[in-house]
Amino acid sequence: MKQDASRNAAYTVDCEDYVHVVEFNPFENGDSGNLIAYGGNNYVVIGTCTFQEEEADVEGIQYKTLRTFHHGVRVDGIAWSPETRLDSLPPLIKFCTSAADMKIRLFTSDLQDKNEYKVLEGHTDFINGLVFDPKEGQEIASVSDDHTCRIWNLEGVQTAHFVLHSPGMSVCWHPEETFKLMVAEKNGTIRFYDLLAQQAILSLESEQVPLMSAHWCLKNTFKVGAVAGNDWLIWDITRSSYPQNKRPVHMDRACLFRWSTISENLFATTGYPGKMASQFQIHHLGHPQPILMGSVAVGSGLSWHRTLPLCVIGGDHKLLFWVTEV
Questions:
Q1: Can you list the residues of the chain whose pLDDT is less than 50?
Q2: Most CB contacts within 10 A, which of 14, 18, 174, 223?
């Protein structure tokens, strides 16, 4: 490993549009572990990528676009459905988007003739987070600047509605117990809801504002991470409602926090674009300093590969990939 933690992206893929958001498919579905979706001002692009870290005969990265969906409005968020399968006949691609017009769109495609989308309307302000229930994929949760968290079925009907005390910034579903939902608010409160009882069961406090992003660690669901102000914060929910660990990382305010999918000690953060560039950092809880730092001219979005210690960020007409060690 280089002594200097700052480095350029290991791989890049050119895109036809500015990339606002990018998401690896987090679910194991046939050979779709490397499905990737990214959204720009008008389009959502679904592609596959294979890396030399997993296939010996690949040099660097092998990327292929499967389909481009016309979206007509800026894409702000993307969530994959666990129903997505590339190994079925015909294949099934299913995902939803949040957009600048405050609507959710649910896309279904067989990558051939069937390409449908349904609009889910109800939010009255920008949508900051959305996620499918990870087991069955039959519900979608979303949070918004309108101070609500809403649960929708795939017909677009709201099945639950939680009133928040401030804008909802992030929402995560428990990977096993699908009646548990985590909602993070801008005022620094993170609440866990029981969807059966439709009430909050636990809350955490960041003591710092604004909280911009939070994420549930899927490798260890007692761990929650977030960024608020300039800092990253990590909670052990069995110990305290206050952060166990925190550190200032981003000068121009922190923007996104994402746990790695393969290690409970590895996570990434991004900062808001400063005068020159967006800062991107990978952290390991065993190291006092970031183990990798990068910068993107105009970066947005952040997602970890499902099986590799590899991150992607969207940039100006490109995707940028960084690789680290576990």
A1: 1-3, 32
A2: 223
Residue 292: in which H helix or E strand, if any?
Answer: strand 292-296
| 20 close to 40: Cβ distance less than 8 angstroms | yes
Looking at residue 325, its amino acid is: E
- The CATH label, of 3.40.50.1100, 3.30.1330.100, 2.60.40.10, 2.130.10.10, for the domain at 125-248 is 2.130.10.10
Query: Which amino acid, residue 212?
Result: M
Helix (H, G, I), strand (E, B) or coil at 75: strand
Of the candidates 298, 299, 281, 277, the residue with the CA atom closest to the CA atom of residue 290: 281
Topology (CATH level 3) of domain 1-121+297-325: Methylamine Dehydrogenase; Chain H (2.130.10)
E strands in 87-219? 93-99, 104-109, 115-120, 127-132, 139-144, 148-153, 158-163, 168-173, 180-185, 189-194, 199-205, 211-216
Report d(CA 173, CA 101) in Å as an integer: 25
Q: What is the pLDDT of residue 151?
A: 97
